[in-house]
Design goal:
two-stranded antiparallel sheet; nine-stranded mixed sheet
């Protein structure tokens, strides 16, 4: 009888769910090393009230930092949005010096010295999906400045994984252009990335562009040989000014380019805002709120 009592007291039914989450799995998580490539990491924000063993599913919003590499700023400004709309936030960190030098532009070009930043990001998304209940296989993405570089170029390669994109104030843009190679155009996507441009899939993704009305800095110097954007002598389009003299004009050029290819764009020029992501978040949130109810 004693043996039976001990056995009965220690028995856990096969269907019982054991809670395994710790404090670091809730709210804003610590930075988590990518299992694909530990040089890169990400933080998550899990909305308040998410239950480890519940049934609620959440949308995923990826927030891609600018050159300053402060993903925590993006998460902090989107926490209330996450709680209200039940959206899990994922913010990657693509640091400097992962290639042995001050590789400031690395992630912006998607492929940098053999590192495929798009695939690193997708592996982070898969890690989140293996732990939290996400809604479907598509996600939202917002990127500012350098993150705007990454976001619109990621869009060309993986539109089938995106529900909506918000492209904010990139310094340079890649146009849909079958007469020019990457990064200026998209002619060599298949050769470079083993991907063919899928305009039909891109047209199914909601596109938002946003920039500050005072984001008017101009770069008048030429792209030089030591720049990551150097494409060789006399390459048409490999110039800071070819798509516009500042970020407002370049984003307008990208919008026109998308619309010429049947991709509708919602664009916001935010009054009194300069090159500051925090001043653009209200417009980003308004766009996303509209997409979440679709």
């Amino acid at each position: 009888m004693l043996v039976a009592a001990v056995f009965a007291g220690s028995f856990t039914p096969a269907f019982a769910q054991v809670k395994e989450f710790g404090w670091h799995d809730r709210g804003m998580t610590p930075y988590i090393a990518s299992q694909l490539d530990p040089r890169f990491s990400y933080t998550l924000y899990i909305p308040k009230g998410y239950q480890e063993n519940g049934t609620e599913t959440c949308e995923l919003l990826v927030l891609v930092h600018g050159t300053e590499r402060r993903p925590d700023v993006y998460v902090e400004h989107m926490r209330d949005f996450s709680d209200k709309h039940r959206v899990i936030l994922l913010a990657p960190l693509f640091p400097l010096n992962t290639h042995g030098r001050q590789d400031l532009e690395n992630y912006k070009l998607i492929d940098y010295k053999g590192t495929r930043y798009d695939l690193v990001l997708l592996s982070m998304v898969d890690e989140a999906a293996s732990k939290y209940r996400l809604t479907g296989n598509t996600f939202f993405m917002h990127g500012f400045s350098g993150g705007g570089h990454f976001t619109h170029r990621f869009f060309y390669l993986h539109p089938h994984r995106l529900r909506a994109v918000s492209i904010a104030a990139p310094g340079l843009v890649t146009l849909i252009d079958n007469t020019a190679d990457w990064w200026v155009g998209t002619r060599d996507l298949y050769k470079r990335f083993n991907v063919k441009l899928n305009l039909a899939a891109m047209r199914r993704v909601s596109v938002h562009m946003v920039v500050g009305a005072e984001d008017t800095d101009e770069w008048n110097e030429p792209i030089t040989r030591d720049s990551e954007y150097w494409m060789g002598e006399g390459v048409k389009g490999a110039d800071y000014k070819i798509t516009g003299k500042n970020r407002i004009e370049r984003l307008a050029t990208l919008k026109k380019n998308y619309e010429q290819h049947g991709i509708p764009v919602t664009m916001d020029i935010v009054p009194s805002a300069d090159h500051d992501e925090t001043k653009l978040f209200p417009a980003v949130q308004k766009f996303l709120e509209g997409e979440l109810v679709k």
